[in-house]
Amino acid sequence: MSNSQNTKIIFGLKVKQLRKEQELSFQDLKELSGLSVSYLNEIEKGKKYPRNDKIEALANALKTTYDELTSQKLSKNLLPLSNLLDSNLLHELPFDLFGIDAAKVVEIIANAPTKVGAFISALMEISSKYELQQENFYFAALRSYQELHENYFEELEEQVDKFVGEFRISTNGNVSFDTLARVLQKKYRYKIDTDAFREQPELQIMRSISIPNKKKLLVNYELTDTQRAFQMGKELAFNYLKLKDRAYTSSFLKIGSFDQVLNNFKAAYFSVALLINRDSLVNDLRQFFKLNRWNSTALFAILDKYQASPEMFLHRMAGVLPKFFDIDDLFFLRVNTNPEEDKFYITKELHLNQRQRPHGNEIEEYYCRRWVSLWLLNDLKKVQNANRYQKPIINVQRSKYFGTEDEYFCITIARPGHPTPNTNISVTLGLLINDKLKETIRFWDDDNIPERWVNNTCERCSIEDCEERAQPPIILEKMKKQESIQNTINNIFEG
Q1: I want to staple 135 with a disulfide (CB 3.0 to 4.6 A). Which of 179, 223, 255, 469 is the partner?
Q2: Does position 495 have pLDDT exceeding 60, yes or no?
């Protein structure tokens, strides 16, 4: 949606507002201005912007001036709409990704500007109250896009297959940093620098910095081989897929547009698909799911085969399970914590097919400590304190959500947040236990897998005598009190 489109919308809103205030019909305005009803309708919908002589005719008909009618200022009741149009948000939201015609959005705004303005004002107030920035909307739109496609993108898979064939990359795991670095150097003439970060300690939280105009990639020397290979894959993706609008750091410092967020996702998806071949992984998972007992060693063997990080591996599983196993009721969750504190933060989540439990909460409530995602982080902390940490730790849980019939088979992997200091991370893949899952995963009811009643946050939980509770159920108690008051009022009316 361009700035010229904004001009059309504002002009149309002004014409409509003045016509309504003067109680003129389209036919009335036609007779006063000499413009056809259909043309006036197109103007008010923000689809047409008339020539100067027609603007003059409209101004005279509506008893205003040319300058007032063409001014970009809106009346007070339409100010929220003006703020939205002036922001980049409406320009950047990816309507086309969701099959929405941007012109229809304009028409909705034009047809009910006051109501839409009030709604927008409410959204902006909420976003301001909870300190939501433009990038929060971008990432939310990206998650919705992933969920819409069940986290699987055939066109990107086809590009990976083409790349693999062209550069003879292994499809059976063990795609190394050196292999991908050679392609980046030979095909795209890049220079890879692993020493630059040593001289800039403040950049240690970054994994890589790309300087495309110099064909140079700076890679943090502290990264593991897997992490370095992933950064190589992303840089290759930006070049191979010809993604121009991008960030030049491994993590966003400032987001310029939604295209940057989308292209970063495409590059990351390409890299993971390159390191964890789709067909090979599907075959490995079929064999794994045939086991009669849960076997963490067998899962570790698959993880090691692809030299993948836990996050890459479980996120890749979240893409192939719906497509190739028809298991589409699932969630992916990443939880971060400082081992010295008792606070946990959901830093990444994905829900397929419905709003799965658990999910993030942005109002500082305490997540249920019964989740495997959290207690495994406490286990990791104990291993670290005893100086016994050697590799990521894996565990499983059947999580039964209190007060519902929902039960999830959860696989969690926890590790230190290398190279980020004072951070531990767990990633969880949760699969709704239904008939399809029982048919596919033989070990789903292994007696050795712990079963636990869980909830979302302590503040809303009614599980009694919970030893893991971090906070009293204050929100639940408030809701019960309100319900009690409402019941008393209902009884008064019924009596």
Answers
A1: 255
A2: yes
